[in-house]
Amino acid sequence: MSNKPFIENKSSQVENSKLQLAKLAKQRGLDARLQSTKPTSTWSQRAQARAVVEKATQQKNLENIFYYASQKTSEQDVGSEPDADWMTEFLNLACQTQVKTMQMLWADILSQELATHGSFSVKALRTLTLMTQREASWFQLACQLSSIIGGENNHKLVTGVLRPASNLGLVRARWDKISLGQHRMPYNHILQLIELGLIFDRELEISPSVHHDTSLVHGQSHYSLRPRLKGCKLLYYRFTPIGDELAKLIESDVLSSYQEHLEQLLHKHFSPQ
Question: pTM for this one?
Answer without folding.
Answer: 0.83
